[in-house]
Amino acid sequence: MEFFLSQLQGFGGAFAALVTDPITYPYIIISVFLGIVFGALPGLTATLAVTILTGFFGNKIPLDYALIALLGAYVGAIYGGSYPSILLNIPGTAASAATAMDGHPLAKQGRGAEALGLTTTGSFIGTLIGTAALLVFVWALLLISQSIASPEKALLALFGILLSGTLMSEDLVVKGWIAGLAGLAMAMVGLDPLLSEPRYTFGWSYLLSGFQVVPVLMGAFAIPQIIDGLRQIDAGKVIALKGRILPNLAAIRRHMPTIARSGVIGTGVGALPGVGEDVAGWVSYGVGKSASHDGKNFGKGSIEGLLSSETANNACIGGALIPLLVLGIPGSPPAAALMGAFKINNIIPGPTIDPSIILRVCAIMVLASLTMFIMGLFTARVFIQILRLPQTVFLPVVLILTTIGSFSVGGGINDLYLMLGVGALAYFMNLMRYPIAPLVIGVILGGLFDETFRRSLLLSDGDLSGFFTRPTAAVLLALNVALIAGQLPVVRRTFAKLRNR
Amino acid sequence: MGIEKLQAELDKDLEMLRARDFWGALALIWCAVFFLWRTSFIPFLGENRAGVSGAEWYNSAAIVPFGIWFAMLLLGLVLLRIAIKAGGAKRAFSAVGLGWDRQEAIRIGSIAVIMGMFIFALVPRVDFILASGLVITALIYGFHAGRVERMLQSTVAVILPGIYALFMHFPQAEWNKPHDDDWLVMAAWVLLTLWMFAHDRSRIARATPWVAVLTPLILVTAMAFGFRQNVPNRGGLLFSKIEYHYYVTLRPLWRN
Fold first, then answer.
1. Range of A354's domain?
2. Nearest CA of chain B to the CA of A200: how many Å?
3. How do residues B6-49 score in pLDDT, each as one tens digit?
4. Of A223, A413, A461, the CB nearest to B123
5. Is some CB atom of chain B closer than 8 A to the CB atom of A23?
6. What is the pTM of this model?
7. Which of A340, A364, A402, A417 has a Cα-to-Cα distance from A253 of 20 to 30 A?
8. Alpha carbons A190 and A207: distance in angstroms, whole number
């Protein structure tokens, strides 16, 4: 009890400091607005919103305000994806793909305004559930993570890359692993962290400092979107809204169990390293279909179905920040972009992170969700107008944004070459259905894996037993082995046989 | 019938994907072998490394890269096996098997050329506002209507000043003087805009010059004077004037 009270007290202090600072408001209002716009425009994603803002705000303003801008955009973008899902049947972000299943049929039935109102409420409550979990669990995990040393960190980084590769792959799991390994390989470029031995620099001095995070993020997430999106697309007709968007209290109370369940599922999925909001939305939708009384109407215009995915994807944000802040392992692709912002500010997320940063993150999340809620209910018609903007107009603007963003972080033309190179690679990977998120997570965690793995070996004089004699390391090693073994045909056949029996 | 048709399309997509996977796996195997060879340049067993002699294998900077590239090689072979078993090798040499589409190839090729020229030729040499304005106009005009001739016209409008800037000011960026490449880019931008108006009277065409001028102008001025960050080509034709008037004409107004 004392623990919760002290947590609440700390959070209260951070929240009071945030809301009494007048500078907070321009940042939060603009960033949430931009986030919703990015989410609402099909072709732009939440990850891209956070990435582009990292380029602009990452190291140019104090971290306290940069966090407001980045988290505001993150919360806004995940929510904003619901607009085109409901009104156009085109998911604005991957996280809102499940939303279209029920949102669009509801809009076609003339219940678009009701769907938007409940989506806004569900997203708001979902974000609060995720933030509450972040506030409580991050401290418990931080205490546990004090005992985590190099072997555990190396195995956790590997687990994050493998899990992300396994779950984010839409074709073969092996492609997800290849993407993760490609990211790890990219992280090897430059001077190695222990002996300063140059690796794969090919005589180019720029590469001595390794691949910079922001150009890699911009290249991986923006360039394929631009190449793929610059085509003539019949965006369809935006369904006109009828009735009021503001939901009534009775409806919210009736759907509260679904919102609460989806919030918990979203937070849990988000806490898995490398698994994003889209997986959270689908998992919650699947669970909702089997758990809800309205399950048979899922896909035909069910409010329960709509709330299952929309609440979960926003709750996932808080969950995704737990592994990021506790272990330095991003819980989702936008969290990976956020990690980039921490990195360029020389903040190392993990057991040594300044606790005041965590409290501030929680306070920003609450304020951002409140801003999103108010904007969603009272200015929804503005965002609906934005849906009419063709992507052939805004994607060239995105190219200029990413160019100047990449240039300004590192201050050099070489960063632009890197961005374009990574972008070309990511485009071809997209074309062959390799997931991009494991690549980026590999780049971000590669340095951590290399350093901690080798430090473990160095301290034990090359003795590998440290990876399985330490209890936590043994559990993590078992998880890694299980993840790989679970994909082997012989293991899958054995499990199938056991299930049949 | 509808489901059968959908299934047939999915099967065709999968066949195409496996044909591409065949080539992807071969490229991956080649990369893995190449980088394993490059990794062998990093001291591994007992050599002097980074001034430390007599170090053991577990100290080596090559240990993790070796692991990564061996794993890549293994996964490349697994992918190759999957692709061959699914018939990818049989279809790997046919255009239909690879899903070749001429219009799509022109579209992607044009975007690649425009982006490549922008990043490699224009940004390092030409005023950022001019280069961005030209590229925004080219991308909107070239790709909004989805017509091949417009894509090619846009590509030509970017490629000509791009090649000029690249070759006349090769190899290093020349941001201060002379401004011949800046003038050429501006001429290409104006000509493309006029050409666009002559062939397109739509709402999008009317909005394009506004987007093309305001986007880089706002971004560059915000970055340079708001965030006080480095921006490309401070000595460019337009930005040098903006910077001069900001510090000489405007700033004293509030500084004094």
1. 2-159+235-405
2. 7
3. 788 788 888 888 889 999 999 999 999 999 999 998 888 766 65
4. A413
5. no
6. 0.87
7. A364
8. 5
